[in-house]
Design brief:
3-stranded antiparallel beta sheet; Arc Repressor Mutant, subunit A; mainly alpha; 127 residues; 60% helix; single chain
Length: 127
């Protein structure tokens, strides 16, 4: 949780929303099973946060219902059967839209940070 949430009710960062583009990105790179995706999410995008596995699996089920990914049970090899996920063309289109959205948000954040830096520089000049 960001420190700002101690002081405000801003919407901030919502893990639930960011999981979908992260999963789509990982599946655009390669097909994978749920545990593998969970580990990749933790190591790449959510290092400092607790990531609830049930949230990841719910997201995968919802994305499959929406046609963004497909899954199949893979048997063979050591261990139990695993559900392996693959991105669909619709999923790739959704990933493209997410990238466009994230770029727009990034521009807003960069503008915000520039404005904030200007304020800080102004404070330092008056001390």
């Amino acid at each position: 949780m960001c420190q700002a949430h101690k002081y405000c009710e801003c919407p901030g960062f919502r893990v639930e929303r960011f999981i979908q583009p992260c999963l789509l990105l990982l599946l655009a790179q390669k097909r994978a099973h749920g545990y593998e995706l969970l580990e990749e999410l933790r190591s790449l995008f959510f290092q400092e946060e607790t990531l609830d596995p049930s949230l990841v699996y719910r997201s995968l089920r919802k994305m499959e219902e929406d046609g963004l990914i497909l899954s199949e049970w893979v048997t063979g090899g050591p261990g139990p059967a695993r559900r392996v996920y693959t991105i669909t063309e619709e999923g790739r289109a959704a990933l493209d839209l997410w990238v466009e959205h994230i770029r727009k948000q990034l521009q807003r954040f960069e503008t915000f940070l520039r404005e904030y830096s200007d304020i800080l520089e102004g404070r330092e000049g008056h001390e």
